[in-house]
Write a structure and sequence with these properties.
- With 152 residues, the chain is α+β, with helices and mostly antiparallel strands.
- The protein has a single domain, classed as Ubiquitin Conjugating Enzyme, CATH 3.10.110.
- 22% of the residues lie in helices and 22% in strands.
- β1 and β2 form a beta hairpin.
- The chain is globular.
- It starts with 5 loop residues before the first helix and ends with a helix.
């Protein structure tokens, strides 16, 4: 596997998403903030991708705050409900590596996750997006009112 330079990753992100912002710290880290609309009828979400050579890739929904489906206490397939950090792939399965373009992997996966999130809301909590269930971290669960009030 040959790692794709963050300079090239940044260029591809700017080409695919010209209205987004990309900040890079040499070849050590990259932050992309852009808007995704998972379907023609879906919402528009501001998403942040943060990659560092040390910690790997993480994706967060910045706006709007993701609400919970009826009866749910946490978002499905996230690392953190309060931080709105999405779980997009199974790291032990080697489904993603730094030799893959963000615009061809992580970003489309985030859009697909958001599509399934909208279905999850519409079906009152039935997750149709597949994936592997994992042990929830301490901060995965949150009160719906906290999301509405913005106290997280």
């Amino acid at each position: 596997m040959s790692r794709i330079s963050l300079l090239h990753q940044a260029g591809a992100l700017r080409a695919y998403f010209p209205q987004s912002t990309v900040k890079r710290d040499g070849e050590q880290s990259l932050i992309w903030v852009g808007k995704l609309q998972p379907s023609a009828l879906g919402g528009i979400y501001t998403v942040k991708l943060h990659y560092s050579r040390k910690d790997g890739v993480a994706v967060y929904v910045l706006d709007p705050k993701l609400l919970l489906a009826k009866g749910a206490t946490a978002l499905p397939h996230v690392y953190s409900t309060p931080k709105q950090q999405l779980c997009l792939y199974y790291p032990p399965g080697n489904e993603w590596n730094p030799g893959m373009w963000f615009v061809q992997s992580i970003i489309p996966w985030a859009s697909e996750w958001l599509y399934h999130y909208e279905l999850w809301i519409a079906t009152d909590g039935k997750w149709l997006g597949g994936g592997i269930d994992h042990n929830p971290p301490q901060d995965k669960s949150i009160n719906q009112q906290d999301l509405v009030d913005g106290t997280t």
